[in-house]
Amino acid sequence: MKQRNNVQIIDVKTDVEIAAMREVSRMTAKILCHLAAMVKVDMSADVIDDEAKRLIAEYAGAQAAFLGYRGFPYSICVSRNEEVVHGFPVKNKVFRDGDLVSLDFGVHYKGYYGDAATTVALGDVKPQDKKLMEVTRRSLELAIEKVKPGATVGDLGSAVFTHVKDNGMDVVREFVGHGIGRSLHEDPAVPNWGSPGKGAKLIEGMTLAIEPMVAAGNGDVVIASDGWTARTKDKSMAAHFEHTVLVTDKGCEILTVIEEK
Questions:
Q1: Residue 133 lies in a domain
Q2: Residue 56 maps to which CATH number?
Q3: How many structural domains are present in the chain?
Q4: Other CB atoms closer than 10 Å to residue 96's CB: what's the count?
Q5: Within-domain flag for 98
Q6: Which domain holds residue 199?
Q7: Could you tell me if 57 and 49 are in contact, meaning their C-beta atoms sit under 8 angstroms apart?
Q8: Spatial distance between the Cα atoms of 226 and 119, rounded to a whole number of angstroms
């Protein structure tokens, strides 16, 4: 995230930039919806990556936001079960009945970024895993409900954290949401915890990627030998949902509307 002498640099978008953010975010959501709908039992994760590349190629000038970012070697993050985020979409990762599969995906188009994530339940999912998904999704909704000019990132984080802890689960603190626009990660950081009224204030025209990552057990993570895949340390199940949103004069506009299966 952009910082200068530890001072946050908040990028407020112009009308032209907001139009560009809407366009790339719609593209991101459309592709992610397609990818989420195709996830099925006995499919290997590399098929998802191949399809992501094919769909991006249909848009002249569009690029996968994650491919090559800080060395990440794939177009999409595919994380399964205890994997929280940044999972590799590899051939030996085969989806099984009862899996939770999280897809984190972004597009770079005409100089701007869109970013979104969703979690898909496969087959006969355990009730506690369904609850994990529901709690994670609802925590994102609660954070989005707090978005308006004058609110703070602490308001958003508190909404996520309170809902998650009230349901006996934990947020992952290793990773946070973020501003987004001309860069994939901009100020301000948007943690999934915090105190109401604290942290950076939201301003009309800001665009944010809000993304609760929730563990059924403890939120501590370990990084796999690939240097990227983050797993829960206690091997508990994890879920991840994310939207790119715009702060408006009336509150919030969700730029990446994702239709679930």
A1: yes
A2: 3.90.230.10
A3: 1
A4: 12
A5: yes
A6: 3-254
A7: no
A8: 22
* Structural domain includes residue 150: yes
Please tell me what DSSP assigns to residue 186: E
The tokens for 50 are 């191949």
Task: Reduce the DSSP state of residue 66 to 3 states and report it.
Answer: coil
Q: What is the pLDDT along the chain (261 residues), one digit of tens a residue?
A: 333 345 577 889 999 999 999 999 999 999 999 999 999 999 999 999 999 999 999 999 999 999 999 999 999 999 999 999 999 999 999 999 999 999 999 999 999 999 999 999 999 999 999 999 999 999 999 999 999 999 999 999 999 999 999 999 999 999 999 999 999 999 999 999 999 999 999 999 999 999 999 999 999 999 999 999 999 999 999 999 999 999 999 999 999 986 554
165 is a domain residue? yes
Q: Cα(218)–Cα(79) distance, rounded to whole angstroms?
A: 17
Q: How far is CA 184 from CA 100, 112, 133, 228, in A?
A: 26, 8, 25, 17
